[in-house]
Inverse folding.
């Protein structure tokens, strides 16, 4: 029903407007008695064989929602009901910001891809905290970043603000220094500033009664030598793991007419590169830390490929938009079939 009816209808309209419409519709549906139970029955699989313990956290299944979809923690309960094993909110910044000028979100239908240049549009970390206080049992990751107006030399302060504000309300943290849509942000992936940032956050983590896992989200555009540096930094700073990968600035192989729009590209064309990065990190580090695989997962087979390449968990974003919520259940069924 989704791919044959709903998707063609929704794809006739502006993607950002559709995103907001979808949020409103899901919130409305979940207020109707019986609808949440029907959706849970339709989309969820509960099986102990799907459970995973990764960086000390027990996940009910290994298929999560990547950051960027529920930026402001508005819909995590409804999305959890669709079968996700965990929901990553954000990217949130200390202060609210509008993001880049519209239009800033583009479908590349022929490529099964999306280009976005959103620019960390969000309501600020305190708005997310207010909503997450109501969370009962949804496993939440907190993806944090810096405000656009904050210079890189002061970026650590922004990440610390978000880290401390969210600490009691998320299960793990993701440090986003790899979005191409905030000017100069990716410079924080360089060895010196990245080591300083992660060391500072880990020191702050050490002051807490119970530490939370800190993960680093990296770009797919890093070279092998840069990836080797990432491995060293992750091990040296003792953070919990890596999310591979964020969106790409590459446009190689795209055929859609709007392929040259500025921004980060996600979706099916990213699949192979994301898997290459996962495999590289896993092999070159001798599996020294967990990797969450994200990028181009549009089928159960795509997810299995990432798990076999070394990912402990996977996340969806563009594939969820193109393939619909049935993809989550299909992936979990395939994992059970293959005893992964």
């Amino acid at each position: 029903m989704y791919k044959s009816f709903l998707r063609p209808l929704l794809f006739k309209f502006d993607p950002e407007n559709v995103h907001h419409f979808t949020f409103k519709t899901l919130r409305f549906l979940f207020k109707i008695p019986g609808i949440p139970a029907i959706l849970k029955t339709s989309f969820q699989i509960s099986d102990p064989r799907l459970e995973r313990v990764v960086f000390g956290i027990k996940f009910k299944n290994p298929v999560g929602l990547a950051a960027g979809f529920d930026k402001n923690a508005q819909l995590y309960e409804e999305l959890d009901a669709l079968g996700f094993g965990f929901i990553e909110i954000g990217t949130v910044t200390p202060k609210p910001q509008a993001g880049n000028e519209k239009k800033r979100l583009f479908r590349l239908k022929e490529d099964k891809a999306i280009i976005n240049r959103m620019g960390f549009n969000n309501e600020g970390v305190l708005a997310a905290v207010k909503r997450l206080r109501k969370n009962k049992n949804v496993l939440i990751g907190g993806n944090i970043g810096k405000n656009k107006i904050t210079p890189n030399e002061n970026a650590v302060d922004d990440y610390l603000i978000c880290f401390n504000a969210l600490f009691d309300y998320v299960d793990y943290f993701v440090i986003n220094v790899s979005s191409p849509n905030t000017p100069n942000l990716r410079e924080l992936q360089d060895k010196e500033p990245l080591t300083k940032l992660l060391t500072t956050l880990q020191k702050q983590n050490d002051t807490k009664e119970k530490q939370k896992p800190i993960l680093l989200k990296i770009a797919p555009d890093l070279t092998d030598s840069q990836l080797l540096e990432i491995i060293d930094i992750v091990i040296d700073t003792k953070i919990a793991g890596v999310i591979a990968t964020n969106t790409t600035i590459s446009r190689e192989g795209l055929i859609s007419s709007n392929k040259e729009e500025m921004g980060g590209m996600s979706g099916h064309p990213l699949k192979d590169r994301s898997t290459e990065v996962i495999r590289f990190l896993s092999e070159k580090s001798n599996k020294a830390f967990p990797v969450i695989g994200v990028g181009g997962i549009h089928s159960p087979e795509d997810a299995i490929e990432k798990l076999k390449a070394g990912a402990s968990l996977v996340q969806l974003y563009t594939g969820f938009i193109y393939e619909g919520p049935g993809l989550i259940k299909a992936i979990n069924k395939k994992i059970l079939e293959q005893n992964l």
